[in-house]
Amino acid sequence: MRRTRAGLAHLLFAAAFAAAVSAAFAQNFPAGKQIEMTVMFGAGSAADVTARTLAEGMSKVLATPVVAVNYPGSGGAAGYQHVAQQRPDGFSIVWNSNSISTNYHAGILPFDFHAFDAVARASIEIPVLAVRADTPWHSLKELLDYAKANRAKLRVGNSGVGSHTHLAASALFAAAEADEIEVPFGQAQAVVNLLAGRIDATVQLPAAVVAHVKDGDLRVLAVLGSRRAPVFPDVPTAEELGYPVALDMWRGVAAPRGTPRPVIACLEEAVRRTVESAEFATAGEAVGFTPAFLPADKFGKLIASDDVRLGNVMADLGLKKR
Q1: CA-to-CA distance for 24 and 18, rounded, in angstroms?
Q2: Chain centroid, CA 21 distance in Å
Q3: How many angstroms separate the first and last alpha carbons of the chain?
Q4: Does domain 128-223 have CATH number 3.30.450.20?
Q5: Is the whole model's pTM more than 0.90, yes or no?
Q6: Rounded average pLDDT per 10-residue block, the chain, 322 residues
Q7: Which CATH architecture has domain 6-125+249-316?
């Protein structure tokens, strides 16, 4: 009995000591030490542009460098694997998105969202379908009619097998009962190949195409999200046009599983203050993302529910591998 009590007392002391150490660590966090934010896609991509805007704001709030580091490969899987292997101390975080689920269910990533602790959601981006401005398609219906009349001839580029843009494109053509050839690209090459005429259309996030639309080289036919894209307010959603496709892309920050809660709270506050700033809103208007803060607890619930939804959609499309 004494041994049992002694063992329990030891456990309680150890837990209290660990909590005290964690609190003391968090109180000093980040103590001027650089924080690395892993971005899973290349420089200039939609993910990169938004991440760097967020990192700059967080650096000001925390009074310490938050550096966005590109770690591309395998549709985002390489970046997730890199961060999952880092110490859970708050100094290595990942700029995550729905891709954590699409990569896992596509069989590309060996673990799911449970490998990370949610910190905060920062933004929402909405996939769009774009074509070259010199094509004869001026509406989504015209493009889909062509795809139906020319089975498996329309070449549609996406950001990689299992990517969110791959899923959105597949969902659209399945809803329209039209055939297309999905062409996966990496490192923002879909838009380059569209401009060069090697593919006929692409599904991308607004940041990847907005400059080319403004220059008159590309035309956006539809938005594949739950709302119109702020940067393309006159372009209707697929749902408005009769196709039940609404696949918003959320982005946020996560940390390796086991990161101390006080550290998570510190990072969350830095994200909140940045996302609610005028500078972040201005960047969103220019690039095409919507500031959309969610705290850690609500963000975690969103990730979990979205994982189930995306898994079901991918299963329906024959894209789910696990």
Answers
A1: 10
A2: 33
A3: 48
A4: no
A5: no
A6: 45 42 66 94 81 96 96 86 97 96 92 98 96 98 97 91 88 95 84 96 92 96 95 96 95 98 98 97 90 98 96 90 86
A7: 3-Layer(aba) Sandwich (3.40)
